[in-house]
Write a structure and sequence with these properties.
alpha+beta; six-stranded antiparallel beta sheet; 2 helices; 6 strands
Length: about 100
């Protein structure tokens, strides 16, 4: 978990990389969800913009730390990343 003045990152699982966060863009919070597909020592992350309501739902729906599996991460991806505006996609890159 990373917490700075301009960004907060909430990682749901250390086993499978996915979660949510926000950053400040022009003085306004931009909320995002991310999902990483691990390949050896690398992760292909997709980071998508979500609403504040979705962000709050993720925080309520998932505990701070869980041992999630690929199936849980895929459900998260389908709900909070797919069909959302992609902000960044790349190897080992998060906002």
């Amino acid at each position: 978990m990373q917490n700075t003045d301009d960004r907060y990152l909430y990682v749901i699982s250390n086993c499978v990389r996915f979660g949510c966060g926000y950053r400040m863009v022009s003085g306004k919070k931009q909320y995002f969800a991310f999902h990483g597909i691990p390949v050896r020592n690398f992760d292909l992350f997709t980071t998508a913009e979500i609403s504040e309501e979705e962000y709050k739902q993720i925080i309520k729906e998932y505990p701070n730390e869980i041992k999630a599996d690929k199936e849980t991460a895929l459900i998260f991806r389908n709900k909070y990343v797919e069909n959302h505006t992609v902000l960044l996609e790349g190897w080992n890159k998060l906002l």
